[in-house]
Amino acid sequence: MIANASLLTVALFLAYGFWLLGQLKFMAAYKSVLFHAYGDTILLCAAVLFLNIFAAVFALQRRFFLKDTGRKLSHLDKQFQTGQVQMPVPAENAERK
To answer: In this structure, are residues 58 and 1 in contact, taking their beta carbons and an 8 Å threshold?
Structure first.
């Protein structure tokens, strides 16, 4: 689940970055000055944005993809607790008997 959230976060972060590059074309001439003066701040803001997007994607995945998982699997847990699990016999063992 973390891998899926990371992949979606990277995709959204790159999409936002490319859109931002398109909007800020007029500042391309000042690229080196801006990175020299504000590089640390830009990097910190990008890291915070990445973590916020990751947290939002992770929360949404937990909310919608793991909905009612405990309720859906509770009958299996009850069967394992009582020992009433009927496992299929592998084909190799069935032929020997």
So the answer is: yes
